[in-house]
Design a protein that fits this description.
- This protein is of the alpha/beta class.
- It has a domain at 259-352.
- The protein contains 13 helices and nine strands.
- Strands 1, 2, 3, 4, 5, 6, 7, 8 and 9 form a nine-stranded mixed beta sheet that branches.
- The longest helix has 29 residues, at 282-310.
Length: 357
């Protein structure tokens, strides 16, 4: 590491890093992330791994316990509330590190992941840094392959830089990064993750961080292998929940955030609300039909371009449906969030919202 004026490094001392892994029922993936950490090139005596488990009822806890017995830098913490922001906050409260790093159980990481991000955090004098997702199929079938491709395409996820391939070779500032590697002082300065946000808590936190003068950098040479959902049902549930908590994020921040988060719901309104208003004038119905036609055309063009690159024409209907599911579920979720959180002033109830893979 280069010398830095950052308080993270004093007289060349390598900072202690606390890695927090929120998980629940990740029997199929938890070993992969733990093995990714064990093979890190960062000094193990400078690592503290806190696996915060949401009372898994599959084989996840048994697997974690076997690693706890074998490695003295790995601990398991119970997350009785079973949701991600509570897991993160409990991990932060129990952590000892000067650097707090979140790692997702549904991903694999390169061996230099921790050392590279800590180095970037110091050298860039940043408050949060993260790597780029390489979205891979969550299963070995054409449907899962199509979902992974859709989730790494601008038509599917907008301009979220960390989800897309970039030509940049140097770190650059962004509005958010996946998972996050933070200076501990960030949490002392702006507080912890909002526990009402069962989804999107990282978006709200990073927007709050930026508003308070924080700097967030994407480090493009660090690639995270992220396993996408492997069925359309799981994809629908995930994007519906992302959309649903969007209005609550806006409410808490007291402003709109990124335009990509509003496009799906605006599209749905043009498709379903305008036909109702067509009783006023048929021109409104024409707008709705045009909107839907343009959407289907763009969707098809994107599918053709992707399949041409992949050399698999059979992907087209699966891709088309993956885009459709993600856009419609997110848009419907956002509109329901507007009704629940902005109009009816409801409070989210974690017990009634199933966070599933």
């Amino acid at each position: 590491m280069k010398k830095s004026s950052s308080p993270l490094v004093t007289a060349g001392v390598i900072p202690l890093v606390t890695v927090i892994i929120p998980c629940r029922n990740e029997e199929s993936f938890i070993e992969k992330v733990l093995n990714s950490i064990i093979t890190q090139d960062y000094p193990k005596d400078k690592l503290e791994i806190l696996v915060v488990d949401g009372m898994s009822d599959d084989g996840t806890r048994r697997i974690i316990e076997s690693y706890v017995k074998s490695y003295n830098f790995i601990q398991m913490i119970d997350n009785l509330k079973k949701i991600v922001p509570c897991a993160l906050n409990e991990g932060i409260r129990r952590s000892k590190g000067n650097v707090i790093m979140r790692m997702d159980a549904h991903a694999e990481y390169p061996s230099n992941y921790v050392s590279r991000l800590v180095s970037a955090l110091i050298e860039l004098e940043a408050d949060n840094v993260g790597g780029v997702w390489e979205t891979v199929p969550g299963a070995e079938n054409i449907k899962a392959h199509a979902i992974a491709l859709a989730m790494s395409n601008p038509f599917g996820v907008g301009n979220a830089k960390y989800r897309l391939k970039t030509n940049e070779d140097q770190p650059f500032e962004v509005d958010t990064v996946p998972f996050g590697c933070y200076k501990r002082e960030v949490f002392e300065r702006i507080g912890y993750f909002d526990e009402e946000l069962i989804r999107n808590q990282d978006n709200e936190f990073n927007e709050r961080l930026k508003r308070n003068g924080g700097k967030i950098f994407l480090v493009p040479d660090i690639k995270i292998k992220y396993f996408a959902r492997d069925t359309y049902t799981k994809l629908w549930k995930m994007f519906f929940q992302y959309g649903y908590f969007g209005p609550l994020v806006d409410k808490k921040l007291r402003r709109l955030t990124r335009i990509r988060r509003y496009v799906p719901s605006a599209f749905l309104l043009s498709v379903f609300l305008l036909p109702v208003l067509s009783i006023i004038t048929v021109k409104i119905l024409l707008i709705s039909v045009t909107s839907l036609t343009v959407y289907f055309f763009i969707n098809l063009i994107c599918c053709v371009k992707i399949t041409y690159k992949e050399k698999k024409v059979c992907l087209i209907p699966y891709l088309f449906y993956a885009f459709l599911v993600s856009h419609f579920s997110y848009g419907l979720g956002y509109l329901k969030g507007v009704l629940d959180f902005l109009f009816f002033k409801k409070k989210p109830v974690p017990e009634k919202i199933a966070i599933t893979r």
